[in-house]
Amino acid sequence: MRRYLAAALLCTAYAHAQQPKLATSLATAPATGLDSVVVTATRVEQSSFDLPVSIDSLNAEQIRGQQPHVNLSESLARIPGVVAQNRQNYAQDLQISSRGFGARSTFGIRGIRLIADGIPATMPDGQGQAATFDLDTARRIEVLRGPFSAIYGNASGGVIQIFSEDGPKTPTVEAGLLGGSYGATRTNLKFGGQDGGLNYLGSAARFSADGYRGHSAVTRDTGGAKLGWSIDEDTRLTLLANSLRQAETQDPLGLTRAQMLADPRQAGSGSVQFNTRKSISHLQGGLKLERRFGLDDNLTLMGYSGQRKIIQYQAIAASGVVDLDRGFYGLGARWTHRTKINAMPLNFTAGVDYDNQVERRRGFSNNNGVAGSLVRDEDDRVHNIDQYAQLEWLPTERWSVSAGLRHNRVAFDSRDHFLSNSDDSGSAAFEKTNPMAGVLYHLSDAVNLYANAGQSFETPTFAELAYRPDGVVGLNFALKPSVSRSLETGIKAFVTPNTRFNAALFRIRARDEIVTGPTPSPGRNTFMNADLTARDGLELSVDSDLERGFKAYASYTLISARFVNYINFSGANLTGKVIPGVPRSTLYVELSWRPWTGLVTTLDVRRVSAISVNDANSDAAEAYTLANWRIGFEQAGGGWRLQEFLRIDNLFDRAYSGSVIVNASGSSYFEPAQRRGLTAGMSARLTF
User: What global pTM score does this model have?
Assistant: First the structure.
């Protein structure tokens, strides 16, 4: 790792020598398209170059250009520190981790906060679903890593926030069609416009696929709407809504190594017998009021509500059918004040968030794919009320100071109505105040050095509390929240006016980290605490606008994630073992060429090192290197815009495991990814 840091320092020295002039303000980065304005780190629009944090922003072209618009993993692969694995299993969503947080997740997103236009897409217990993000209308996606993620509350190992575009000034309608390998099809419709002070945007899409593996078919319907009303020049009201419906999405489960070698396209043991599948119905709406008072004060009020229903059939007979009916809602208020101290700018933000989730959970026996007798019946509730404050101050023209504090209180309560096997009701509350601070030194117009430190807090989710490692019926309220302390230092430099270089070193120590415990059968995942874990890593990225229409980008992550002190449920000492699910290194390289307007082609290569599949490190998914190629065309005229694209994924037909199921029962760790696949699509846009 030292030689990578030495290389980073050499690049910094070079950039400093090239452009030594002192800037007059930290608020202005070098004039280039390689910098971006972000809000996730500070809740105030600011240049990413001038923030003492690791944050990256993906623009609309990077999100949607020659992409299927189906999975968040399509564009997240380029972000250092983030591993986004497509399971090829739409019953379980993506597997996304940030600096190792979230790698243990067997379904959904954990350890990372998901936010859409300021509205939480993560439940108060820390579990979220990336499938609710509408990529068709995304203007940008911001990815925050490191200590300042904790300003967003429980389970903030990282933050992924999506911002949707506004409707165009002129009424516009757009339709798209896509077809690809393994029976994949997608149709979408998007429309928007402006009528006086009312701005509107709507979208709807249907995606379906037979699936690369057996028993993995899916049909997904999504929809979204955004209405913005400018009441006056200082007041804006925004209404947001999104929906997701997946009926009878098949679950192929994981494979053992022997099964994967014999036939990676087969379904896992028990999937056909028990007809493993999941149905999801999700509807959510939110309302946001933004009011400006003069030039120095802004107030944002937010409220949201939603309903989510899940019916899941697992590959076990007893309690093999899970029936969840969840209602959720929340409120938030945030005030931002701009002032000066000693003639130098200071921004201060304070806010409060309240989130509530009420869930009726029932379990039934699975009689070979048919729901049988009731075996579980309970009402579960989790809610939080958090307060936070953060500030940014420029005490001099060279220095910038950022600090934040968030107080979290998350309370769980379960009322058992199935009393024939005892009353398993119970409650627990977890509370923590998490500080964070950072400093940035403006070495020159082209170079910023920074450091930050902070603490984060992660409670168990209700899914992680569902079963006890000892096999006794009842919720696992012995599971404790984990507390992580992080240090980070980094460099942000424009090596040339058209080339930006970022480097970050981080150190994380987590007490009582929530890890996967014994798994007696598929779907019966249990969890426990590891006394102490460690993550030490390096993140690098280079982004360059070259000559003759070429652009190049590369990112690299190196991480050592290990148990420092951990004796598992069986008494085995796993101290020194690698934390499963976390690759030691990832590399992403992309080269694109736009020889003239209307044509662009891109080649990207991704390298992922071996991934351990269990705590004992007895097996691992092999390292793999993938190449993907795509080309896009565009024609425009007379109010019309036509776009076509062709892409080949896994260009060299590599066989590999796209993700792993950590500590899976029966050693069914592996989720094979699809081989070479062809996708073609087109869209037509008409502006009236």
Answer: 0.93
Beta-strand (E) ranges in 394-481? 399-416, 426-444, 447-458
Q: Which is nearest to 630 in space by CA: 607, 655, 606, 649?
A: 649
CA distance 172 to 183: 30
Sequential DSSP letters for 561-573 = EEEEE-B-TT--B
User: ∠ CA(70), CA(308), CA(423), 5° rounding?
Assistant: 135
Determine the topology of domain 2-423+438-687 in CATH. Answer: Maltoporin; Chain A (2.40.170)
**Alpha carbon 71 to its chain's center:** 11
Question: CA-CA-CA-CA torsion for 229, 230, 235, 237, nearest 10 degrees?
Answer: 10
d(CA 153, CA 51): 20
* 615 within 8 A of 574, measured Cβ to Cβ: yes
What is the DSSP-derived secondary structure letter of residue 181?
G
- Which helix (DSSP H) or strand (DSSP E) does residue 665 occupy? none
CA distance 492 to 41: 16
Whether residue 30 is predicted with pLDDT greater than 60 in this model: the reply is: no
- Residue 315's SS3 state is coil
State both tokens at 519: 């798994």
User: How many other CB atoms are found less than 10 A from the CB of residue 323?
Assistant: 17
Distance CA 503, CA 447 (A): 12
Helix (H) or strand (E) holding 75: helix 73-76
C-beta separation of 171 from 688 below 8 A: yes
**Other C-beta atoms lying within 10 Å of the C-beta of residue 569:** 11
Q: What's the burial of 248, exposed, middle or buried (CB within 10 Å: 0-12/13-18/19+)?
A: middle
Task: Give CA 190 to chain center in angstroms.
Answer: 24
**Sign of the alpha-carbon dihedral angle for 534, 51, 401, 406:** negative
Q: Would you kindly state where each structural domain of the chain is located, as residue ranges?
A: 2-423+438-687
pLDDT digits 0-9 by tens, 593-627:
999 999 999 999 999 999 999 999 999 999 999 99
pLDDT at 470: 79
Question: What is the DSSP-derived secondary structure letter of residue 154?
Answer: T
Q: Can you tell me the distance from the alpha carbon of 667 to that of 356, in angstroms, rounded to the nearest whole number?
A: 37
In contact, 411 and 125? CB cutoff 8 Å: no
Record the tokens describing residue 462, joined without a space.
């209700």
- Which residues are registered as beta bridge partners of 505? 489, 538
> With contact defined as beta carbons under 8 Å apart, do 540 and 4 qualify?
yes
Q: Under DSSP, is residue 72 helix (H, G, I), strand (E, B) or coil?
A: coil
Two tokens at 63?
């999100």
523 pLDDT higher than 70: no
What sign does the CA torsion over 263, 267, 268, 269 have?
A: negative
Query: Mean pLDDT across the stretch 269-282?
Result: 96
Q: What are the C-alpha distances in Å from 18 to residues 34, 300, 520?
A: 18, 43, 61
